[in-house]
């Protein structure tokens, strides 16, 4: 049988603090990834092919770079279903004139879901920390 941990115990305080720190750290990573991706350059592209593997889907997209050259990339599809011929906006990160990362511009759903989940976890951990550290009221 599993031993239960009381929130006001030393172990309970440690675990609640650890969960709070982990939730805040995860939330900052998600917000950082979201803001970094929003700072990338963008270009219009055309879906060449839709690829499906199990439950996940991706699309092969051809888009133009600032120098006029064409780039083809296979990008994860988390948003609406896209079919060959559909026009999409692609965000890409350039380093030394080469694309190092790319994503569909409206592919923010996974980041939003993760951010909301970590936010709720952080809020719960904050309440748990308040319960663990606030002294019990004394009745006389």
Secondary-structure blueprint of this entry?
Layout: H1 10-38, E1 41-53, E2 56-64, E3 70-76, E4 87-95, E5 98-104, H2 109-133
Antiparallel strand pairs: 1-2, 1-4, 2-3, 4-5
Overview of the molecule:
- The chain is an alpha+beta fold and about 140 residues long.
- It is built from 2 helices and 5 strands; from the N terminus they run αβββββα.
- β1 (about 40-55) and β2 (about 55-65) form a beta hairpin.
- The longest helix has 29 residues, at about 10-40.
- The radius of gyration is 22 Å and the shape is elongated.
- The mean pLDDT is about 85.
Give me the count of strands. 5
Structural class by sheet pairing and helices: alpha+beta
Give the CA-CA distance, first to last residue. Answer: 38 Å
Q: Uncertain runs with pLDDT below 50, 5 residues or more?
A: none
Please write the string of helix (H) and strand (E) elements: HEEEEEH
Radius of gyration: 22 Å
Strands across the major sheet, in which order?
A: 3-2-1-4-5
- Relative helix content: 25-40%
Q: Mean pLDDT score, rounded? A: 85
Largest sheet, strands/sense/barrel: 5 strands, antiparallel
User: Helical element count?
Assistant: 2
Q: Tell me, what's the shape?
A: elongated
Proportion of beta-strand residues: 25-35%
TL;DR?
By secondary structure, the protein is α+β, with helices and mostly antiparallel strands. It has helices spanning 10-38, 109-133, and strands spanning 41-53, 56-64, 70-76, 87-95, 98-104.
Search tags:
32% strand, 2 helices, 140 residues, elongated, five-stranded antiparallel beta sheet, 39% helix, alpha+beta
């Amino acid at each position: 049988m599993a031993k239960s941990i009381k929130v006001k115990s030393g172990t309970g305080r440690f675990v609640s603090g650890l969960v709070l720190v982990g939730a805040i750290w995860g939330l900052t990573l998600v917000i950082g990834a979201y803001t970094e991706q929003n700072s990338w350059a963008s270009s219009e592209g055309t879906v060449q092919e839709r690829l499906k593997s199990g439950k996940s889907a991706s699309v092969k997209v051809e888009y133009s770079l600032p120098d006029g050259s064409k780039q083809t990339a296979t990008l994860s599809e988390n948003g609406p279903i896209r079919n060959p011929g559909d026009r999409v906006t692609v965000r890409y990160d350039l380093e030394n004139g080469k694309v190092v990362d790319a994503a569909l511009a409206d592919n923010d759903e996974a980041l939003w879901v993760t951010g909301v989940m970590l936010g709720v976890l952080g809020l719960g951990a904050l309440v748990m920390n308040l319960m663990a550290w606030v002294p019990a009221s004394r009745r006389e």
